[in-house]
Amino acid sequence: MLDRRTFLLHASAAAALMVLLDGVRAEAAAEESAEFKASLEALLGKATPQEAGLMLDLPESVDNGDYVPVALAVDSSMTPESYVEAVHLLSTANPRAAVATFRFTLLSGKARVTSRMRLAKTQDVVAIAELSDGRILMTRRKVDVKVGGCGI
After folding, report:
1. Contact, 74 vs 129, CB < 8 A?
2. In this predicted structure, what is the pLDDT of residue 29?
3. Quick check: 15 and 22 in contact, CB under 8 A?
4. Cα–Cα distance, 6 to 124 (Å, whole number)
5. Phi and psi at residue 47, to the nearest 5°
């Protein structure tokens, strides 16, 4: 039987360990591979992306990185003056930064996609939308991966 002092000591140690592990996960998510940085620079060029108008729906945490559902949507009227040409999906820490590119035309009607992706470990997922009028939209979400996919 545990006495009160031993219980408090073990509970304090467990709480400290949880704080330490959360810090390690946050650092892992903050890491960006050289391939990601190069891909991001190639897509953005000198453009300054806007943060509004692009929705990236991902779970905050997944048990298995082999199957991560993702949904993308761009708030666009899809008119000849301004429509979504492409949406790019990037990962900051996968072996390959470029996960997918989805192309659209005026005939697409709406710029929406649902799919799934693999994530090697806890990291940020970045979505970039290119519009025909030259605007670039960008958003980012962190996904906590318990067991990594991508063969890592």
Report:
1. yes
2. 43
3. no
4. 39
5. -70, 150
